Amino acid sequence: MALEKAELPPQHSQVDLNDVYDATTLSEETPRWARKINIPPSQWTAIDVKTRLRFICYSYEKTFTNGLLFMLLLIYFLRSFGVEHKITLQTDNGEEFGGKSVDKLEYLNRRVFAPLKAELLHIPRGKKEYQAFVECSHQTDDNEFYIPQIECCSDLKEFYFRALRWEFMYNTRRHHSTLGMTPYRKLRTQMQISKQVALFQ
């Protein structure tokens, strides 16, 4: 589960669910406006630990079905860009990612992920630090996207446009201090891949 295990990007991603209406971070007015224009409350995020390239989706329900669909969509998306090596997806033990059942995790890996040359990994219970990269990225979303931009959106369509633009900017233009470059540029140092991979849609 450590960074060193990701030999080839995008190979090992941390996956998590974020509450868009986080009352501990946003002002009272921001979630109120988000509800008024019907912004989905759940943000699904995957971040490649080696390059910090991020992939984001939204949903109105926090369910296992939506979690599984997000992970499958990510796998098929990466395969469409010629990524052929094994892909591992690391999550917490939330029900939206299969829950705490070892049998369910084994079934998912055997019947769903293995045929796609992928694997679902659950972190040990109570070890939030294992998800440090994706957790940190949620804070970045709050500070650099939700707080300054949600109240600028006139409707849901504009929110989706701004969210897509934010994802692309994060991946291709925002300098990452740890990497010394953007996530997409880091990815290009490892493999030749279209810039469209930075726009998960």
Structural overview:
The chain is an alpha/beta fold. It has a single domain, classed as Ribonuclease H-like superfamily/Ribonuclease H (Nucleotidyltransferase, domain 5). Helix content is 38%, strand content 15%. The protein has helices at residues 29-36, 64-79, 102-113, 132-149, 156-172, 183-188, and strands at residues 12-19, 42-48, 54-59, 87-91, 118-122. It has a 5-stranded mixed β-sheet with strand order 3-2-1-4-5, with helices on both faces. Mean pLDDT is 93; it is low at 1-6.
> End-to-end span in angstroms?
27 Å
The general outline is: globular
Q: The biggest beta sheet, please?
A: 5 strands, mixed
Strand order of the largest sheet: 3-2-1-4-5
CATH architecture: 2-Layer Sandwich
Uncertain residue ranges: 1-6
Write the layout of secondary structure elements.
Blueprint: E1 12-19, H1 29-36, E2 42-48, E3 54-59, H2 64-79, E4 87-91, H3 102-113, E5 118-122, H4 132-149, H5 156-172, H6 183-188
Parallel strand pairs: 1-4, 4-5
Antiparallel strand pairs: 1-2, 2-3
Summarize the structure.
The protein has helices spanning about 30-35, 65-80, 100-115, 130-150, 155-170, 185-190; strands spanning about 10-20, 40-50, 55-60, 85-90, 120.
List keywords for this structure.
201 residues, alpha/beta, Nucleotidyltransferase, domain 5, 5-stranded mixed beta sheet, 6 helices, globular, disordered N terminus
